[in-house]
Specification:
With 639 residues, this protein is of the alpha+beta class. It has three domains: 20-87 and 134-218 and 322-401, FAD/NAD(P)-binding domain (3-Layer(bba) Sandwich); 97-128 and 221-317, D-Amino Acid Oxidase, subunit A, domain 2 (D-Amino Acid Oxidase, Chain A, domain 2, 2-Layer Sandwich); 457-632, Phenol hydroxylase, C-terminal dimerisation domain (Glutaredoxin), CATH 3.40.30.20. A hairpin with an 8-residue loop joins strand 11 and strand 12. The longest helix is centred in the middle third of the chain and has 26 residues, at 386-411.
Length: 639
Amino acid sequence: MQFHQNGFRTGDPAIAEPLVKNTASASEVDVLIVGTGPAGLTLAAQLCAFPGISVRIVEQRAGPITLGQADGIACRTMEMFNAFGFADRVLREAYFVNETTFWKPDDQGRKTIVRHGRIQDTEDGLSEFPHVILNQARVHDFYLDVMRYAPHRLEPDYARRVLDLDVDPSATSGHPVTVRLERLDPGHEGEVETVKARYVVGCDGARSAVRKAIGRELKGDSANQAWGVMDVLAVSDFPDIRLKAAIHSANEGNILIIPREGGYLVRLYIELDKLKADERVSNRAITADQLVAAARRILHPYTLDVKEIAWWSVYEIGQRLTDRFDDVAEAEVGRRLPRVFIAGDACHTHSPKAGQGMNVSMQDTFNLGWKLAAVLEGQSGPALLDTYSFERQAIAKELIDFDREFAKMFSAPPKGTEGAGADAVDPAEFQRYFVKQGRFTAGTATRYRSSIIQGEPTHQHLAQGFEIGMRFHSAPVIRLADARPVHLGHVGLADGRFRLYAFADRQDPSASGSAIHALCEFLETSDRSPIRRFTPAGADIDSVIDLRAIFQQDHRALKLDSLPALLKPAKGRYGLTDYEKMFCPDLKFGPDIFDLRGIDRERGCLVVVRPDQYVAHVLPLDAYEALGGYFDRFMVERG
């Protein structure tokens, strides 16, 4: 963590200087966010890092949530939390999902259940972060702290309901979106506020008023299957009560057990009776006692004595998706600037058992946030905003397809069960499917399609472990200046900057003719340098494109003073030297980053990483024209 850049400060360095005081009741803003769920808060936390961007976030509820709802946090999401600065807070409280067990009916009498499988939950080396469980409300708390202490102080406006939304389609500037909000808070009931915005983002759930206002519709199907979910404090002799466990009984249905944080709390997903074609789960008036009774039947012969129910709900399985995630008709893409976006449950809904909803929703707005900031700050042209729907709708479609199959297999009766039909599933087959989809559920399988912000894989062979379109897979390194072991990916903060990682060849990087010296000379002095062309006058040299170098030599073999000046940039009002731009291999625990990520040691390479931590391009160290050409696609020259 770096601080004191612009002068000595006491106190908590995570609390930024309040460069802008948010005006909660602002009637004219750059971005209006509707909804304080995971998607809305991720976007708000990202945008409030930019003092020049005015943001307002509103919520229909009277205040923040305190319990229930989502709890699964994927490895990829933890990587994102680290960029926001609160991964350590999550790890301190969370339950770690280390292993998963699988239970099926006893082969003999089929009246009891037996364990038939036990596996590692995520494969080794998939991420430096684990899969964890933590109440969604705590995730919200951490995001609210980020917003509260950011350069642009931001607090949500609760008790605001969207009445209507109107977009002026002819406007090319100004604040073309008008939203009317009804206040619901005591003393102000019925009052109407009008907000004008450059952009509006609807993160307001499956019944999204924003989605309806732009004419988008959730389309899909229902499996006509009812499920209950409850968080309980219970006494049980079930041996895997503190492990994630998928349980298929012969005739009583199925349960998914998810241990919760704190050592005692447990979440149960409980299969209920199938719904009729025209029936809704709300018609059944299901009670918490009925859920407990169903859980006991499924767990037989093990006992379950529920002492307290912290939260419970019932739902029906369904998978639904909108065709686009913005307000631009397909025929108008490229001709009209999107002004309204939707994210999270507002544009995709599915079952909760695979733990994907909260994770994918946050990735939606992590994708959108930096793009909005780049356009609003004049760093990029508006065509960048078209890539949000293009990228995230395709990922949501993959999620829907996965969830449909996962839910179908989990709800199906085990093969060999009396009366089981053609949809019966071998429990071993379900376990194999779980393992096969491990990277998907960990959030690390996302691959974005080719676009203006993604290069072609012509030089992918130079860094086989940094696949273009996939997230930047971190690895251990040693920071050269202070010999500190760190993870390279952790330099990528949620600050809207591109990262340019220069992996050196075998040459001595301090030699004047080395490839690293030549690269730094080009980036620092050439009129064609993207760093010079796209960095605003007077800004720090790394404020848009942050160059980092990774050498092959041992950190004790290199002399800091003989390495390129661009890797020791002067920053801030005093021109202080940033010593955290150079890294060397960490060999204490096995192969180094060059071997782990398949980097060509003879040639080295450049890896361009987007602000949302996805690999945008891989190029040779001397591909200066191609590097500049990549940024020319979407950036606006400002140097």
